[in-house]
Write a structure and sequence with these properties.
Shape: globular
Helix content: 25-40%
Strand order of the largest sheet: 9-8-7-10-6-11-12-13-14-15-16
Strand content: 15-25%
Number of strands: 24
CATH architecture of the largest domain: 3-Layer(aba) Sandwich
């Protein structure tokens, strides 16, 4: 693509050099730059891409997009100065892949909890209605029926547009996308044309990055602030931040609730470990998901489907067929009569929700196995331990993904949330496999074991080294 065509929608401060050059690829990783590439210098948390501009020009970069012109000699490359390189990369990625989001009905899902379940089940529902659809999620990406491994909740801007472009090529009409707060803050969604935005809830998470809860909330809100007039916005009225998302939003606005008047309202009529009987807008439907948080997820899915003008009765019929998403309240039944629930809950609110759900339906004891990730928000560690202890008959604290931190230090941070009496009643087992095996060993008929924190993840990072580890496999190996 000609550079002039590539940068036509870019808010450039200045362009130094010719724009009739042929660009063969776009890179933001300096190590991948080759002859004819355009390099985008981004300021990251670990490194500043501006430090590598000179090296990229020596490697043959035809053009460079950057925020600062200091410290390098253009040496024949065309330089495009912008105010925000992250935004520029998003806009360039859209243009490079021929603006695929404009050719799809793209719906973004944001919030602390529930994003994966909602996006994945909307994707499944849409395909069962007979449409071709794509999915960008934490667990796995899909281009119609083809799976593509996922490495982040929201990929980088180039990968997002590459996947959306593939969806267009394969005839997809719809795309559903988890939108993380990191992705919004880092402008990975810049230039995307969203036809709908869904808000789940907001609880403490990622404060190591956003610093304050207000920053975290306001970042999520940006997805709604930028919606066009003919798009739709659907928000959770049960969350105190739900209506905040709709402030200054120009799209068609809708709400869902389990407690108050809303456009989409639902209640639980009956509930067990394997499903619920629900009333959604005064129509009964049996579903295979469990818990009030999943009632909220299903209301969001139903509301989004109706907002997309799908047939209401068909949507309800397909809701009854949908299966839980990998690692989201997944039940594994033991021949000895106990049940293990594998769940991704890794925030205080998510742990509280899943424990409340189990406590409403269990007939035996609740044994909870939980840990916290390393190199992340330390403030939530004692909170999670306290919530887990208060709602469980037996608590086992263990490792999650320690990453570069000492696992014992993380466990000490969690233990700080417990009283001396509570600590005497709590098992602390650093090795996660041993912790899960211990829970399975002490479980009796009708007991429930909650294994929280990792869900779909099939690895652990311990002292910086990645190891294969899957909570499901550990339970089934014991069984």
């Amino acid at each position: 693509m000609r550079l002039s065509q590539l940068i036509q929608n870019l808010p450039a401060l200045q362009v130094i050099g010719p724009t009739d050059r042929e660009i063969t690829d776009i890179q933001f990783d300096s190590r991948r730059v080759e002859q004819g590439h355009l390099f985008v210098a981004q300021r990251g948390t670990a490194a500043d891409g501006h430090q590598f501009i000179a090296a990229c020009i020596r490697q043959g970069a035809a053009a460079v997009v950057c925020e600062s012109l200091d410290g390098f000699d253009p040496e024949g490359a065309t330089i495009i100065q912008v105010a925000d390189s992250n935004q520029a990369l998003g806009l360039l990625a859209c243009q490079w892949y021929d603006n695929p989001s404009q050719k799809l009905t793209l719906v973004g899902v944001t919030g602390t909890n529930g994003k994966t379940t909602i996006a994945t089940l909307l994707y499944q529902l849409t395909r069962q209605l007979g449409y071709r659809a794509g999915l960008l999620s934490t667990v796995v990406n899909y281009v119609d029926g083809d799976s593509v491994p996922a490495t982040h909740t929201t990929p980088d801007a180039l990968e997002i547009n590459r996947l959306l472009h593939r969806m267009v090529q394969q005839g997809c009409q719809y795309a559903f996308m988890e939108v993380s707060s990191h992705a919004i803050a880092q402008q990975r969604i810049a230039g995307l044309d969203f036809d709908g935005a869904l808000f789940t809830n907001l609880t403490r998470d990622h404060l190591d990055y956003h610093k304050t809860f207000d920053n975290y909330r306001d970042t999520k809100k940006q997805l709604f602030d930028h919606l066009k007039k003919d798009a739709f916005a659907l928000t959770n009225k049960d969350d105190k931040n739900g209506l905040v998302m709709l402030q200054n939003c120009n799209a068609h606005r809708y709400t869902y609730s389990t407690r108050s008047m809303a456009d989409f309202r639902g209640t639980i009529l009956e509930e067990g470990l394997d499903g619920m009987l629900l009333s959604i807008n005064q129509k009964e439907v049996m579903v295979r998901l469990v818990g009030r948080f999943n009632l909220q997820n299903l209301l969001c899915i139903y509301g989004a489907a109706v907002s997309l003008h799908f047939d209401k009765d068909e949507v309800l019929r397909i809701l009854s067929l949908l299966q839980p998403v990998n690692g989201r309240f997944e039940a594994i039944h033991s021949p000895k009569g106990w049940t293990a629930i594998v769940d991704y809950a890794h925030t205080p609110d998510a742990v509280d929700n899943v424990i409340q759900t189990i406590n409403e339906i269990r007939k035996g004891r609740l044994i909870t196995v939980v840990g916290c990730g390393g190199n992340r928000d330390k403030g939530k560690r004692p909170q999670m331990a306290r919530i887990a202890k208060q709602g469980s008959d037996q608590l086992i604290l263990t490792s999650d993904n320690p990453r570069d931190e000492d696992p014992l230090t993380i466990l000490q941070d969690m233990a700080a949330g417990l009283t001396e009496d509570e600590l005497r009643q709590t098992l602390i087992i650093e090795d996660r496999a041993a912790a899960i095996q211990t829970a399975c060993t002490i479980a009796q008929n009708k007991d429930v074991i909650l294994i929280a924190g990792k869900g779909h993840e099939d690895y652990q990072i311990i002292r910086g080294v990645k190891h294969h580890f899957d909570d499901h496999e550990q339970v089934r190996k014991y069984i």
